[in-house]
Amino acid sequence: MDTDSHELYRNNNLTIRLKVKLGVNKNYDVTFKARHPDKNLAKSYDLQNINLQPNFEIEEQKYEEDIISQWDNEFSMASKFSISTELEYRETASLNTLNDVLSIFPYLKLDVSKDTPLSKVNGLEFEEINYKSGEILFDSIKKAEVGFSVWSLPGIDNKPVIGEFDIDVKVKDLVNNEKSVEDIFDDPVIKEIDKLYKKMNMHYPSIVDKNNTTKAEYVYNYK
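Above: the chain's sequence. Below: its structure in token form.
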């Protein structure tokens, strides 16, 4: 969700993603994510202090690093860091204007009028399938979960349009009592994942799409 002119994403590095999870029970989740190439700016978005409300529970709060492979005559990598909060609603979330978002995150500073309406980005909805592939152990203790997600546009052939390879580490598996969350992106395990991803790209270049993009960029640039 965003404003008609995509001010949240284009000018404020914020995305809002509504999900309906199908299973025994239907869950309505909303993920609020701030992403920026500068990890300190990413952490400056206050998505941690939440005004709790009776219609949702906090599902998950994460720190992420998206690694984008770049090919301009030679291989290179660029990182985008993000902080996110996922809320689980009992029913479909009612986020009609930015004011509804700020009622949840009272300390979130955005350069957008509070009364600005929100709607689907480019009118799009996707079907997502997540595959869990296993775990990677670092230092025989700290683990990272490996997975792959695929987005498809609902239709006759339901053809996949974008996929994303993930190596996820939970914050609780990184931060110890002597360490501040402020150092989260500098954790040795995160750096080891960076090295692993770089080696995969260098030694197995065929697995990397040279025109790769993030899922958010795909949605916002969709034509």
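Residues 7-220 form one domain.
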